[in-house]
Design brief:
The chain is mostly beta strands. 3% of the residues lie in helices and 45% in strands. Strand 4 (67-73) and strand 5 form a beta hairpin.
Length: 116
């Protein structure tokens, strides 16, 4: 088939609902090279600090709704703290440590694309 469809309603979240949700679309869509994820963070919630130094995966974070803070660099001493609004995106290379944080009063939804 030339296309596949998937819905977050049909995919189990890997994040407890109290923090928001995180749905991985790669497998349900049959993606070979591209990872696609939907992340929702409740106010005060944050993602896991991480990098992709081992696999070289770059990631693009596109804010679909809300305000997102992205911490770039070491966990104890981030090089940058960026604030992104709905419709704004950032690309982060695989070697760079990053963490997504919702410091606002409303939930934030983020579309994440990753490829190596």
């Amino acid at each position: 088939m030339a296309y596949e469809t998937a819905s977050a309603d049909e995919i189990d979240s890997v994040v407890p609902a109290e923090y928001g949700g995180m749905w991985f679309f790669r497998e349900p869509l049959g993606c070979e090279y591209l990872g696609m994820t939907l992340l929702e963070l409740e106010p005060g919630s944050k993602g896991k600090p991480h990098d992709h130094a081992e696999d070289g995966q770059e990631e693009v974070y596109l804010v679909v709704d809300g305000e997102l803070t992205v911490l770039i660099g070491d966990e104890d001493d981030p090089e940058s703290e960026l604030s992104l609004s709905s419709g704004e995106a950032i690309r982060v290379d695989g070697e760079t440590r990053r963490q997504l944080v919702n410091e606002g009063d409303e939930p934030v939804s983020v579309a994440i694309a990753g490829a190596s």
